[in-house]
Amino acid sequence: MANSPSKAPKLKLVDPVWSRIRTEAEAIAEQDPSLGGFVFGAVLNHEKFDDALRHRLARRIGNTDISNDLVEQALGDAQEANAEINEAARADVLATFERDPACDRYIDPFLYHKGFMGLQIYRLAHQLWKMGRTDFALHLQSRSSALFNIDIHPAARIGKGIMIDHAHSIVIGETAVVGDDVSMLHSVTLGGTGKDHGDRHPKIGNGVLIGAGASVLGNIKIGSCSRVAAGSVVLMDVPKNRTVAGVPAKVVGYAGCSEPAKTMDQKFSEDDE
After folding, report:
1. What percent of the chain has pLDDT over 90?
2. In CA terms, which of 53, 150, 173, 217 is 20 to 30 Å from 156?
3. Domain 15-149, CATH homologous superfamily name and number
């Protein structure tokens, strides 16, 4: 007779990202025992990715103003309210590993990359913002800015599979929207053009690559799978799958491939025209 639902065997949940991070943590502890306490506290003492992420972020953010424990409790409230936060974090790990040539392990962004850290703090602050805990969200934004030099307003909307390389001097404004699978380098600004209130920040499509030092300003749209060249100042809408460059930026050709954010190719040639 077939098993009744109550007696059916339980399937063990598979989390390949977390399994690989744990394996890499074990290798670190074996290769350099002086880091054993660090990797055990950050990774190996936790059963789940979600728990380890919350603990890791709280340890970085907590201070004399708000303790680690209170921060971790608030982050846990955000995770409980929206489980997609944890899935987005896993996608961000994979995006960094796949696109950053200096990232050789899944554990690297989790332990060391401030772009990943700042992005995850934003994700949790965004959920707290939606829950009405705006002051706690703003506190997290302030702490992230002070620690990592990454300033993302908790009301901004950012998709999953995001890679922020180096991440120094990233600014993303309150009404900005960033799609899935976007890559951006350091000193990128998604800002406004003045002191007007309302919807005033850029809308970045899926798969966009934004080069170092680029500024995208105003309530404009950057079409999916486009490239914004390093140092550009973009003030007008950009069509899909195009490359823009200059001050002010102009369309200089096609994006060169179907997924520029994943290839990370920032070179422009006549073949892209």
Report:
1. 87
2. 53
3. serine acetyltransferase, domain 1 (1.10.3130.10)
